[in-house]
Amino acid sequence: MIMDLGHIGRVALGLAIGALGGALFNALGTPLPWMIGPIVFSGLATFFGLPVAGTRVGRIAGMLVLGTALGLYFTPEAAGMVLSHLPVIIAASATTLLVGAAASFLLARTARIDHATAFFCSVPGGVAEMSMIGERFGGQPLPIAVTQLLRVVCVTIVIPSTLTLLGAGGNSDNVHGLLPSSGPGLAATLTFSLAFSALLARFKFRNAWLLGPMAAGCILGLSEANLSSIPPWLSATGQVLVGAQIGSQFRRSLLASMQRFIPAALLNLAVLMAGCASVGLLVAHLTGISPANMILATSPGGVTEMCITAKVLHLDVPIIVAFHLVRIFLVILSSPYVFQLLRAVGIFPAMPVDAPSRVPAE
């Protein structure tokens, strides 16, 4: 019980520090303040050794709120718009995977790591998923996890800030944004989302607590149930829960053990972001979709963070949600086969069984 109370205290301190960061960033008028503020403040607190901790339960609760809110944007009109762009969405998502594969060559050379580790560091997938898949193919899970985490944090900070500074907002709105917030309707909405996500988790559905709330929101949006919107204060709370948990993973000991690897990972990330932005601009040119929408849709960031950015900047949330969801499925499902293909044709050399990869020692 003492250990449990101690952990609860560390979680509470982390959330308090994260909320303080969100409030400060909000007062300063920074983009996405309730997400970026907690990431920065919680990350700094963790790095400097304050007794803070993240919580998986808190992240799930935050994802439940945010995923449901994003899914509610899928009205029948929005779904029709997504279907009309489906070939472009699939093609752009596949190109993003290829950009990550190409960037892995630079990471392998600059960080002096094996190609398996470099590949799964570079393709924009989930932190846990890429670590597990990469380890299965002989990669090192630690640098993969760190690089994927750095990707989410850096993209969340850089892309919204850049788009805001460039004045790249839109004027997109829909029924969900105009719905009033209703107590009973909100309770019914979140209860349905929780039950649907728990059912997916019960049947071992991959990323149930990420995709489940979005799917539940989509069902409500497509059916035009119009129960309730997600109020701003609850959306901000969800962002604090997710952001504080992300920041709490930046432990000093973890970063100190990889001082020579992290600069190479940041260079790799810059190449990945530039490549994905180029893909977005090309798709915008070919389709007539606005550049801001396409840069956000093809960015290698987390689906929740990028879609919240779209909501804040009044961009086309359904299109951006669709791009990122397709990318997640494509990367998780196809990255092992892409890696095996590249290894089979000799682009990635096979690793000796008795020579495991490792990050260069200090």
UniProtKB/TrEMBL annotation:
Parts forming coiled coils: none
Transmembrane segments: 7-28, 34-53, 60-76, 88-108, 149-170, 182-201, 261-284, 319-339
GO BP terms: regulation of gene expression
One Gene Ontology cellular component annotation held by this UniProt entry: membrane
Keyword list, A-Z: Membrane, Transmembrane, Transmembrane helix
Top-level lineage group: Bacteria
Pfam family, one: AbrB
Protein name in UniProt: AbrB family transcriptional regulator
Species annotation: Bosea spartocytisi
Lineage: Bacteria, Pseudomonadati, Pseudomonadota, Alphaproteobacteria, Hyphomicrobiales
